[in-house]
């Protein structure tokens, strides 16, 4: 990519990100002016009503940015590792796996804080991801989109029955879970963000480091091996990062689908197939998308709000349909 | 041509025919046993004689209410919905040549689900309006998926992928409706969503019966065409089948069945998905298996409901039991299917 | 030998999704003969075959069987005259050989009538001709590629059509099986008088087994006739863009192509 285009791209996306962050601080059930937002950011101790409102919104804004970035990168990594255009945590059933583990945690082990959820969510995400991928890649042709999607959808369906079985007899869990299940950034607290950030940072670093090896992997295992890439290692590193990112995000936000599907595809359209650009750009794009979805949710659901997970699924699923319509029949 | 060779071929045909008939008979008997058990089991157990008298319309004190008003509609709803799910699922799976392409996985059931949840939670209506809107929504979703996947020539794989996308979107709508809803209505909707035979009323049954009878018979009649479609588009055209017309008819029947049954009982997980492959394994792959699949569906629903009601301290809706029972089989099926390379 | 209806196509223009692949081809299929369509990859030979088999609707032009346009003939009636073996047919999982072959009888069945005596006989005969009677009750999944191909041809035979179209029936098969399948098809042509039209990749086998050859290049029919009359160095250059020598097949006496590359050419 030409340097000029790169500069434009970076500045445009950063501007968009900053704008959406401001919007996220300003809009909601009570709208706050830009001046107050900036004022609050510089004088955090201010006690006016507006600044209290803005301060309330800081953690969710911060979290929507990191969660979006993590989901975007996670999707990019999974698509690259599986060489499959529709790999996404929600399609692979990873989110449902995390849900099941978290719900079981709430119901059987009485966990109740984000720092405890996360271990359950990570374990659930990892187990499901490996399971679905193993099943989807068995047999002739490896992990084709159709096999992977079906394995994911079917596993997801099975896991959600288990989730229902766990929560139906327990009304209190049902209520807590109902909100967690859709995926929302609104419940974010500093404590929660702090407890997941080590995982997210680790995942992002591994993701960015493995980008150039993933470029080689895109050419096929044989070619990549020929180029001196340790394909097994790259896959494991990529998968680890992907699962860390989406598992940790899911632990705090609940399952948010389709960010990981939409963003890497959009970024591939904008900046070409080079993973070294796609990975960081997916982070920025994911952050923008989730923050904006969160804001849209506040508008649509006014005076309450609509969970970001619903917005992303509603706008993301058509993207999957579009991809399905464009993919050549043979490669299904 | 030697006679021994002829005998080998002819004997094979007859043997498979006998197996098919035997499986159908056994399934029918088993279904009948489960139906009787549904009427017999409960807080108070009545003697077969009392049950029979109630069924014949006699007003037996106590038993008339327990059996006639509670157990009978529950049993009939389970029986009919199970058959509907089984036949519809088998039709989709055979037509798309993929055991995973059942209506509950590719989004058709979710279409009906959205409509039903909308009716229950937002319009606060019940009964026939729910059923009709579920049917209309199911049909619309099925045709939308079909239309989107047509582009050029028909591809089963593309249809499945688009169906999964559609499913995700519809589930987002369902989540939205659940979240917006009054907290008191939610358990009802959630129960409906996981598929339940609780609170079935006798007045729901006749319409369901007619739908199952009508479209079930159509599917049975078109079993031969289904078997030809199973050979793929090219072979089917070559054998003189009007593929577009046949597919349309089969989809229409299957969607009617699935949507109507879903409206009554909620989407009972995995019945549509499991019945076809199980019936196929028992009765053999050479038949269209519409009848055995329907019976298998009924057996699954009735059995799961009995387990859900009586096997644990708390009563689970039937859909959760089928979901959990179905999971291991699903995994087995996925593994086996992928190993033999049976992609779409 | 009964009278086979005349099968021809005129001014055919056809393709996929608006992309025209064959333009303006006229063919008259020689009756009771084996015809082979040859051509380079993506030249439209398969498209031509599929158009003849009504799998692709031609953009313009007409395909006529026995004086009637095929689009006007009821599908089942047409299926009793014209059969096709697709290139990659789909095997329903777990189905047995004889069950699969019996599905070739679909054009002879109606709403009320299931498989009858005649149908069983047709299936048995087809199995017998293909030499797979002993596999009748085996599952198709378990068979080898060559055996599977025989099962598919048996299904097309059970359909008892006068004309049989085959799209690359020997692809993915070892050379032994290729010869075996082509011999079986020749049996069929000689014994039953079935008109056979197929697409083949191998020029030398085409030249040996064909009574008549259609050469297609970039969607146009550029030559047709008996192999010994039309296969020449010029035609091969035109169709495949390949320099070659044409000699006489020492076994069959048909024309035999020996390709020339840039190396290993002994200059006389």
Automatic annotation (TrEMBL), chain A:
CDD domains: TM_ABC_iron-siderophores_like
UniProt KW keywords: Cell membrane, Membrane, Transmembrane, Transmembrane helix, Transport
UniProt topology in membrane: Multi-pass membrane protein
One GO MF term attached to the UniProt entry: transmembrane transporter activity
Gene Ontology biological process terms in this record: siderophore-iron import into cell
Any matching Pfam family: FecCD
Stretches that traverse the bilayer: 58-78, 90-111, 117-136, 148-168, 199-220, 232-257, 277-296, 308-327
Similarity comment text for this entry: Belongs to the binding-protein-dependent transport system permease family. FecCD subfamily.
PANTHER family: FE(3+) DICITRATE TRANSPORT SYSTEM PERMEASE PROTEIN FECC-RELATED, FERRIC ENTEROBACTIN TRANSPORT SYSTEM PERMEASE PROTEIN
Protein name: Iron complex transport system permease protein
UniProtKB/TrEMBL annotation, chain B:
Molecular function GO terms recorded: transmembrane transporter activity
Pfam families in the record: FecCD (PF01032)
Record-linked SUPFAM superfamilies: ABC transporter involved in vitamin B12 uptake, BtuC (SSF81345)
Organism of this sequence: Anaerocolumna xylanovorans DSM 12503
Family: Belongs to the binding-protein-dependent transport system permease family. FecCD subfamily.
Any GO CC annotation of this UniProt entry: plasma membrane
UniProt keyword list: Cell membrane, Membrane, Transmembrane, Transmembrane helix, Transport
Keyword Secreted found: no
UniProt protein name: Iron complex transport system permease protein
Location in or out of the cell: Cell membrane
Principal cellular location given in the protein's record: membrane
Record field: transmembrane: 20-42, 62-85, 105-123, 129-147, 159-179, 205-222, 248-278, 290-307, 314-335
GO aspect biological process, one term: siderophore-iron import into cell
UniProt entry tagged with the keyword Disulfide bond: no
TrEMBL record, chain C:
Domain ABC transporter: 7-243
GO BP terms, alphabetized: iron ion transport
Superkingdom assignment: Bacteria
Assigned GO CC terms: plasma membrane
Record localization: Cell membrane
SMART domains in UniProt: AAA (SM00382)
Gene3D superfamilies per the UniProt record, alphabetical: P-loop containing nucleotide triphosphate hydrolases (3.40.50.300)
Keyword Transit peptide: no
Recorded topology in the membrane: Peripheral membrane protein
UniProt keyword Nucleus present: no
CDD domains referenced in this protein's UniProt entry, alphabetically: ABC_Iron-Siderophores_B12_Hemin
One MF term in the entry's GO annotations: ATP hydrolysis activity
Keywords of this entry: ATP-binding, Cell membrane, Ion transport, Iron, Iron transport, Membrane, Nucleotide-binding, Transport
Protein name, entry field: Iron complex transport system ATP-binding protein
Species whose genome carries this gene: Anaerocolumna xylanovorans DSM 12503
């Amino acid at each position: 990519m030409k340097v000029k285009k790169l500069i434009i791209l970076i500045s445009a996306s950063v501007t968009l990100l900053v704008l959406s962050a401001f919007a996220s601080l300003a809009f909601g059930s009570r709208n706050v002016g830009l001046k107050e937002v900036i004022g609050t950011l510089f004088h955090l101790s201010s006690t006016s009503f507006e600044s209290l409102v803005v301060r309330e919104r800081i953690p969710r804004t911060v979290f929507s940015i990191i969660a979006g970035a993590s989901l975007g990168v996670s999707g990019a990594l999974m698509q690259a590792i599986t060489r499959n255009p529709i790999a996404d945590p929600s399609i692979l059933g990873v989110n449902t796996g995390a849900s099941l583990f978290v719900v079981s945690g709430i119901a059987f082990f009485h966990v109740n804080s984000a720092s405890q959820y996360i271990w359950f969510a990570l374990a659930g995400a990892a187990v499901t991801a490996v399971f679905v991928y193993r099943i989807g890649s068995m047999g002739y042709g490896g992990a084709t989109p159709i096999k992977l999607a079906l394995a994911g959808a079917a596993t997801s369906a099975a896991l959600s029955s288990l989730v229902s079985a766990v929560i139906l007899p327990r009304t209190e869990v049902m209520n807590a879970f109902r909100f967690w299940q859709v995926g929302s950034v609104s419940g974010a607290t500093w404590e929660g963000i702090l407890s997941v950030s080590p995982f997210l940072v680790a995942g992002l670093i591994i993701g960015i480091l493995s980008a150039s090896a993933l470029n080689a992997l895109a050419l096929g295992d044989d070619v990549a091996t020929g180029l001196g890439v340790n394909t097994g290692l790259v896959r494991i590193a990529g998968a680890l990062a992907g699962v860390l990112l989406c598992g940790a995000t899911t632990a705090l936000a609940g399952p948010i689908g389709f960010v990981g599907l939409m963003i890497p595809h959009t970024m591939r359209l904008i900046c070409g197939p080079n993973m070294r650009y796609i990975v960081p750009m997916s982070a920025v794009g994911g952050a923008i998308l989730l923050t904006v979805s969160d804001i849209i949710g506040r508008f649509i659901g006014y005076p309450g709000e609509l969970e970001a997970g619903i917005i992303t699924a509603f706008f993301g699923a058509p993207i999957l349909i579009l991809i399905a319509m464009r993919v050549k029949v043979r490669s299904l | 041509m030697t006679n021994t060779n002829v005998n080998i071929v002819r004997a094979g045909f007859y043997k498979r025919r006998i197996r098919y008939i035997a499986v159908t008979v056994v399934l029918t008997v088993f279904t009948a046993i489960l139906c009787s058990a549904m009427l017999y089991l409960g807080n108070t157990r009545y003697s077969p004689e009392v049950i029979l008298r109630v069924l014949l319309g006699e007003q037996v004190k106590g038993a008339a209410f327990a059996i006639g008003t509670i157990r009978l509609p529950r049993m009939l709803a389970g029986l009919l919905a199970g058959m509907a799910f089984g036949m519809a699922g088998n039709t989709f799976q055979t037509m798309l040549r993929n055991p995973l392409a059942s209506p509950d996985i590719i989004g058709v059931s979710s279409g009906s689900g959205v409509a039903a949840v909308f009716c229950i939670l937002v319009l606060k209506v019940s009964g026939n309006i729910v059923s009709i809107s579920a049917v209309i929504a199911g049909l619309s979703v099925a045709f939308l998926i079909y239309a989107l996947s047509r582009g050029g020539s028909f591809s089963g794989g593309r249809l499945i992928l688009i169906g999964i996308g559609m499913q995700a979107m519809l589930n987002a709508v369902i989540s939205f409706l659940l979240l917006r809803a009054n907290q008191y209505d939610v358990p009802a909707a959630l129960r409906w969503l996981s598929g339940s035979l609780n609170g079935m009323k006798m007045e729901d049954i006749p319409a369901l019966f007619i739908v199952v009878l009508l479209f079930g018979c159509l599917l049975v009649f078109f079993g031969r065409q289904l078997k030809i479609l199973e050979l793929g588009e090219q072979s089917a055209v070559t054998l003189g089948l009007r593929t577009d017309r046949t597919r349309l008819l089969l989809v229409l029947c299957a969607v009617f069945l699935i949507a109507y049954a879903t409206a009554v009982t909620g989407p009972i997980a995995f019945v549509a998905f499991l019945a076809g492959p199980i019936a196929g394994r028992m009765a053999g792959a050479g038949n269209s298996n519409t009848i055995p699949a329907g019976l298998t569906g009924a057996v699954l629903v009735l059995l799961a409901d009995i387990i859900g009601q009586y096997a644990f301290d708390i009563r689970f809706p039937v859909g959760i039991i089928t979901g959990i029972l179905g999971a291991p089989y699903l995994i087995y099926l996925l593994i086996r299917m992928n190993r033999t390379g049976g992609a779409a | 030998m009964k009278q086979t209806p005349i099968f021809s196509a005129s001014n055919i223009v056809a393709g996929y999704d608006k992309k025209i692949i064959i333009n303006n081809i006229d063919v008259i299929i020689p009756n009771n003969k084996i015809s082979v369509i040859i051509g380079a990859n993506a030249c439209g030979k398969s498209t031509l075959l599929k158009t003849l088999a009504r799998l692709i609707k031609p953009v313009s032009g007409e395909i006529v069987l026995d004086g009637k346009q095929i689009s006007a003939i009821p599908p089942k009636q047409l299926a009793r005259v014209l059969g096709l073996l697709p290139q990659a047919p789909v095997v329903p999982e777990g189905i047995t050989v004889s069950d699969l072959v019996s599905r070739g009888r679909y054009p002879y069945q109606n709403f009320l009538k299931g498989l009858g005596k005649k149908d069983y006989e047709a299936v048995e005969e087809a199995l017998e001709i293909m030499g797979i009677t002993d596999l009748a009750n085996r599952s198709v999944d378990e068979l080898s590629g060559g055996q599977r191909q025989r099962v598919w041809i048996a299904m097309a035979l059970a359909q008892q059509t006068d004309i049989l179209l085959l799209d690359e029936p020997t692809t993915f098969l070892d050379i032994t099986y290729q010869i075996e399948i082509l011999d079986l098809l020749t049996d069929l042509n000689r014994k039953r008088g079935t008109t056979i039209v197929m697409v083949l990749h191998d020029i030398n086998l085409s030249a040996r087994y064909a009574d008549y050859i259609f050469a297609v290049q970039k969607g146009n029919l550029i030559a047709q006739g008996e192999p010994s009359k039309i296969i020449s160095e010029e035609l091969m250059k035109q169709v495949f863009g390949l320099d070659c020598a044409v000699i006489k097949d020492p076994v069959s006496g048909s024309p035999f192509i020996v390709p020339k590359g840039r190396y290993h050419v002994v200059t006389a």
